[in-house]
Task: inverse folding
């Protein structure tokens, strides 16, 4: 298991050195990157896994090669990377923190929707940049993409360092979210967190709720993918945030191998992303929760080997993620035959979900919905 978790990191180093503009058949993803990592002068790296003294911003443009399988990242085999065959950057430009709202204005989409992504444990800077670019591209969502990347050393044995780095970074994440809220060029915000990144997201929202007595209605959706959160702590965070909160979608898998390791080193406390929803106690708790939809991906077999990043690596899930969740709909909205109240519904293999997506699933996804949706 440990070797599998370690293998999640990229094999390359210095891959972010910008290359000349790629051919026209490549795709482009233009990101705002906000980070609390320490900067470095090392060529093609830009930011390390150590903690920086201030929030840093950069505009990063990622080129994505044609003829690739959705859910995958093509790492350069040699430097500089070939845009026809691998992910590369074409620009990495620093931005003054005070100019963040100017960036939002210049990159606003027609719907003025912003997607903020926070990565998880064991993630180097280049991993975070390319993974988020892959998600944005493969989901086909019309959003302004913002990556918040905290200081992760990208090393399996630095789990506790990474966890403390999320605490170190939650105020800066709150600032980035608040600047999007205050921007007149932003009308809707979706926040997506993977694994350990769920902690600073929930804490930032908790701080906003307790300081402002509410969460801005601009923040419509929060997606927690395989959240590495103690289930008791998560319950307390929800109480502190209050009922007037964004809709929360949670991707879980009972056979998430990475979260089994997290549970082992966290006092055997169940992680939210690894709950077994065949357990009656968990179903009863969910029935009482409002504004929460849980997607059980346990039966999926076409994601990553650890069953920990299926929201990004399973082509079906990442496409539905863009076509449904990023439009403020749950998967259960796609089929009018599904119950509107709490329930568990299996979408069978090969069944098309609604006419809006036209996407066929290769394995069942179970949907668990709280009693009341916002």
Result:
């Amino acid at each position: 298991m440990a070797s599998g978790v370690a293998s999640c990191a990229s094999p390359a180093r210095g891959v972010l050195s910008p290359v000349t503009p790629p051919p026209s058949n490549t795709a482009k993803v233009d990101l705002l990157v906000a980070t609390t990592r320490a900067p470095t002068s090392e060529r093609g790296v830009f930011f390390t896994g150590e903690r920086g003294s201030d929030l840093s911003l950069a505009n990063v443009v990622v080129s994505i090669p044609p003829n690739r399988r959705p859910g995958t990242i093509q790492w350069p085999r040699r430097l500089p990377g070939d845009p026809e065959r691998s992910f590369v950057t074409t620009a990495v430009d620093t931005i003054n923190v005070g100019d963040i709202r100017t960036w939002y204005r210049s990159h606003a989409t027609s719907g003025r929707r912003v997607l903020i992504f926070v990565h998880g444990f064991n993630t180097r800077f280049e991993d975070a940049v390319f993974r988020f670019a892959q998600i944005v591209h493969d989901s086909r969502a019309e959003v302004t993409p913002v990556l918040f990347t905290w200081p992760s050393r990208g090393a399996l044995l630095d789990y506790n360092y990474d966890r403390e780095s999320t605490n170190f970074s939650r105020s800066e994440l709150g600032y980035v979210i608040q600047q999007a809220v205050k921007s007149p060029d932003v009308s809707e915000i979706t926040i997506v967190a993977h694994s350990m990144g769920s902690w600073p997201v929930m804490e930032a929202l908790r701080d906003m709720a307790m300081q402002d007595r509410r969460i801005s209605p601009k923040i419509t959706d929060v997606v927690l993918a395989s959240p590495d959160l103690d289930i008791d702590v998560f319950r307390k965070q929800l109480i502190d945030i209050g009922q007037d909160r964004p809709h929360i979608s949670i991707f879980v898998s009972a056979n998430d191998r990475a979260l089994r390791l997290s549970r082992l080193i966290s006092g055997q406390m169940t992680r939210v992303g690894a709950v077994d929803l065949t357990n009656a106690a968990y179903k009863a708790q969910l029935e009482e929760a409002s504004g929460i939809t849980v997607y059980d991906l346990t039966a999926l077999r076409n994601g990553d080997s650890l069953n920990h990043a299926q929201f990004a690596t399973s082509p079906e899930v990442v496409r539905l993620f863009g076509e449904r969740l990023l439009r403020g709909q749950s998967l259960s909205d796609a089929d009018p035959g599904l119950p509107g109240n709490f329930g568990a519904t299996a979408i069978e293999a090969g069944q098309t979900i609604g006419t809006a997506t036209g996407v066929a699933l290769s394995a069942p996804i179970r949907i668990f919905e709280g009693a009341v949706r916002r």
Observations:
- The radius of gyration is 19 Å.
